[in-house]
Amino acid sequence: MKILIINKSAHSGGAAVAANRLYTSLKDIEADVGMLVEEPVNKNVDISTICHKRIDKKKAFNRFIKERLYFLPYEKNKTVRFSFSPAVAGIDISQHPMVQEADIIHLHWINHGFLSLKNLDQLFRLKKPVVWTMHDMWPFTGGCHYANTCNHYIDTCGHCPFLRWSNSCDLSSKIHEKKYNIWNQANIHAVSCSKWLGSLAQESSLLRRKKIYSIPNPIDTNVFAPMNMDECRKEMGLPLNRKLLLFGAANISDPRKGARYLMEALHILDIRYPELSDKIELIIFGKSKDIDFNKYPYKVHSLNYIDGTEQMVKLYNCADAFVLPSLQDNLPNTVMEAQSCGIPVVSFRVGGVPEMIENKKNGFLTTMKDSDGLALGIYEALFNTDPKAVKENARNFVLSNYSNKLIANKYMNLYKSLL
User: Is 273 in the same domain as 358?
Assistant: First the structure.
C-alpha cells in the first residue's frame, strides 16, 4: 500500500507542520509513504516538490498572484484578503508519477495557487481513495477558511460576510455549487483533527453525505519535551527571575489570533495586581507587523521568527505559561507543543481547544472574548497553582493522546479500511 501525502508546503504554516509530522510518524512505523509539496524544500529533506527549477518557482508565485488578484475585486476589505480562497489557480498533478503510483492520496492544505477546483477534480477522477485532513473549514465552505459566526455553509453559502457584494448568488454561492458538483462524485474520506471541526463538517451540505473521521495531529514527544528552564533562558537571553508568558503564531497580526484580547487581559491584570508589574514579562514570536508592543503593560521580548524546531522547544521551556487568545482554531500545534514541553496553556474555550485543555488541571479556559477571564487564567497559571502538578498533567495528556506512533497507527487503520 503506497500512501502519498500532499500539502502546499513542507515547512510553512500549521498544516505543513502537521503533514510533515504525520509523514515522519508513518515512516517510523515503516509505512510505504511519500510526500509531495509545491514549495521548494531543503536539500537534506526527503520530501518531493514540483518546484525543481527557477522557472517552476516563478510559475508557482504567478499562480499565487493570480489567485489573489482574482479575489481582489470581491474582497470586503484587506483584512479578509487571505481568509477566502476561490481556488481558481493551480497546477495539474494528477499525472505526476508519485500520484499515479499511490494507492491512497492524502490531501492536507492545498490553497493559495497550489490546487484549483479543476485540479482537485482531476485528482478525484483517478478514482483512488482520497483522505483529506481538514486543517480549517475550507473543504466544506464556499471559500472561507474560518466562517466565524456565519453558518451559510450548512445550506448553499451566499450572503458571504467576506465579500464586498454579498447576495444569494455571490462568489461564495458559485464556488459552493462547483464544489458540490465535484465533491459529490469524489471518493473523499474527510478527517477532522478536532471533534469540533468534524461536527461542523458533518452538518455542512458539502460533506454531510461523507463519513467524517476524527484523528488528531501527531507530535514527537521525544523532541518536544521538558528541559531545564534556567539553562534555556540563559541560552535565549531571557531573565531568570521573572514570570514569562509566551504568545505566538505564524501571524499574530491576524485578528483571529486575538492579540487585542491578550492586551486587554494584561491591562486588567496590571490594574488588579500592580505589585506584579516588575515580575511578569511577555515573550512574543511570529509575524507582528501591526502590533505596537509599547501598548502592553509589561516588558515585551519580540523574537519574530523562530528558526528551527530546536529553538522553538527551548523557547517553550523558557515559559511559565503559554497563552492562546484565538477567536477560532482547530487543533492548534502551539497548544500541543507547549503541553508536550510541560507548559500549561491559557485559552478561550473555542474550536478544538477544549478537547486539549481540562480547565484547572492541565491549563485554563475561559469564555471567548472574556478578557477578564483570560486575565484570571494567566494569573492562576503564573502565581496560584501547583506548577509541578499542572506541568505533569499537560505532558501526560499529550503522551496519552497525540504521540507519533499512536496517530500513525490510527491513520494506517483508516488507509487499510479504504482498500
Answer: yes
> What is the number of H-type helices and E-type strands within the chain?
13, 13
Residue 224 lies inside a defined structural domain of this protein: no
> How many angstroms separate the CA atoms of 338 and 119, rounded?
37
Indicate the residue type of 414: L
Task: Read off φ and ψ for residue 70, nearest 5 degrees.
Answer: -60, -40
Domain of 324, in residue numbers? 229-401
> Cell triple for residue 301?
521580548
Total domains, the chain: 2
Statement to judge: residues 397 and 407 lie in one domain: no
- pLDDT tens digit sequence for 344-391: 999 999 989 999 999 988 999 999 999 999 999 999 999 977 778 888
Please check whether residues 237 and 204 belong to one and the same domain: no
Residues 382, 321: Cα–Cα separation, whole Å: 7
Of the pLDDT bands very low, low, confident and very high (cuts 50, 70, 90), residue 288 is: confident
Distance CA 410, CA 193 (A): 12
pLDDT (0 to 100) of residue 339 = 96
DSSP letters, 139-188, are GGSSSBS--TT--GGGTT--S-TTBSS-STTSHHHHHHHHHHHHHTTS-E
